[in-house]
């Protein structure tokens, strides 16, 4: 994936910090090139690090400039419908075959409204030097991170909180309002930031600034979907879902050298693997499809058996990635370094570890992320219905009026704050692009327009997705999913949790003192193996938070 950072300087030469200071926090996201653009008067600066997947030619390097029209763009993500848009915007004099240039073409020919034609995952900035405007944009689903903040005489924006602080030349101070939510949920609430004076851009937002860094307006970025439910019978609706799903997978396999797909053994990833395999056999890929799964570290604690069954049934070769033995403390801490704001969910480690293996094989990984949130896979059927859903952020097209407050939170806040943050940091920080067909905007829009009885037919969770596997045995379709987690608690216990106690900071214990179990309130060196084992989730959060404080302290020096 790519990374970018930018700033608007109120008085050139007077602002603290310099943009290249942010490079250490962006370089892993874009190892192929690094470029800096500065407006002639020094008011606006952009720094971009590139992971070159679509059009690797140097002419497509970002920040990408159209000097004739006075436009510059830097973005992180992928525009999946860029070939179609090139034909639609043929009046624009394209110089490259990149999806980046399509963004400028859409804006140049149609203004801000042109951005609603984009389909993909992206956060971006467009600098219009003639209008002396800067537009900061996050896609409507919100898969890629984007933050804005203020420093000494500057407005800063970009892919990483730590990069923003570095570019602004300001000290990072903890936002006390965000601490409690993190402790209880293991992630940062998606409309907050753990650092003061920095805030996330809400998905589906366009923030417009003038040349002096004043915020002029906030616009909603919400494209009209090509199709919604119009009363058609269930078989037609199911067929439409299948068409949209196939198109979503096909788009994400395009421009995908050595494509890989994660088949965890669950319904969602199996459906994606099935469609990708069908497209591969039809000649839709330029190289063989690679299928991977995470092997069990402790027997019978994940879905390896089901992944093996799915691969055999689909006629695909499966690569099982297994955890390395020994040095688990160092492996875990190496994983945490890839975080920006802290993520306390245990699943971050196995995902990071699997992506590290993918990075040696491919730059693109397709996953089944989003299936539970879009097709209603969590909890039970009754929990999703009731109406009155209130959320902190938007994510995708409007939620259906029949969705409960709990369901709305899972489909938006939980997805953006937990799911997207986890996947982005585990993958982009290792120069791998994760593509999620089930989070396709047009697919989500159609599914959310359906009546609940189509999605929860007969009370069956994810009924529409399971129909894509019609004829598969009930023991595969209806089992309880164990999830994509290696049992770190047991693995680490073998070594008496060596490397955990000495890295938990007293400041972390102080920060969460009111919620700590008594056994973890004493100095970490006095924690017994049983103390840690019985309260491993809390001990893990303390370790994650301690590593975040170390990153913040290093930046503040």
Your description of this structure?
- The protein has 557 residues and is α+β, with helices and mostly antiparallel strands.
- It folds into 3 domains: 3-220, Glutamine Phosphoribosylpyrophosphate, subunit 1, domain 1 (4-Layer Sandwich), CATH 3.60.20; 234-377 and 410-477, 3-Layer(aba) Sandwich (Rossmann fold), CATH 3.40.50.620; 488-556, no CATH class.
- Helix content is 34%, strand content 16%.
- It has 19 helices and 17 strands.
- It starts with a strand and ends with a helix.
Q: State the low-pLDDT regions, or none.
A: none
Number of strands: 17
Can you tell me the overall shape?
Answer: globular
**Major β-sheet strand ordering:** 2-3-1-9-8-10
Biggest sheet details: 6 strands, antiparallel
Instruction: Round the mean pLDDT to the nearest integer and report it.
Output: 90
Q: Structural class of the secondary structure composition?
A: alpha+beta
Q: Beta-sheet strand percentage?
A: 15-25%
